[in-house]
Amino acid sequence: MQVGDRVRVKESVVVYHHPEHRNEAFDIKGLEGEVTAVITDWKGRPVSANYPVNVKFGKKFRAHLQESEIELL
């Protein structure tokens, strides 16, 4: 998975920070977006992030996801 790849959420992932559904449970399964970052290091030191893939959906919504929760398009 690389920056710029188009992806789709393939598993049920419930978020509470979606701009149109603030503080409500919202399932993002099926949403398509673009990978904006893959977090593997911080200031030159390797890290093991729980949700290393940062995905941008539209203009206002971003989410950190695991690689197992998304699929390449």
Care to count the β-strands?
9
Instruction: State the end-to-end CA separation.
Output: 11 Å
Report the top-level CATH class: Mainly Beta
Strand order in the sheet with the most strands? 8-7-4-1-9
Please tell me the total number of domains: 1
What fraction of the residues are assigned to beta strands by DSSP?
A: 35-45%
By CATH, the topology is SH3 type barrels
Order of helices and strands: EEEEEEEEE
Annotated CATH architecture: Roll
What gyration radius follows from the Cα positions, in whole Å?
12 Å
Mean pLDDT across every amino acid position: 95
User: What count of helical segments does DSSP give?
Assistant: 0
Secondary structure category? mainly beta
Task: Considering the chains and any ligands shown, give keywords for the structure.
about 70 residues; mainly beta; SH3 type barrels; 5-stranded antiparallel β-sheet; two-stranded antiparallel ribbon; 9 strands; about 45% strand; globular
Provide a descriptive summary of the structure in words:
The chain is an all-beta fold and 73 residues long. The chain has no helices and nine strands. The chain has strands spanning 6-9, 14-15, 26-27, 32-38, 41-42, 45-46, 53-57, 61-65, 70-72. A hairpin with a 3-residue loop joins strand 7 and strand 8 (61-65). The radius of gyration is 12 Å and the shape is globular.
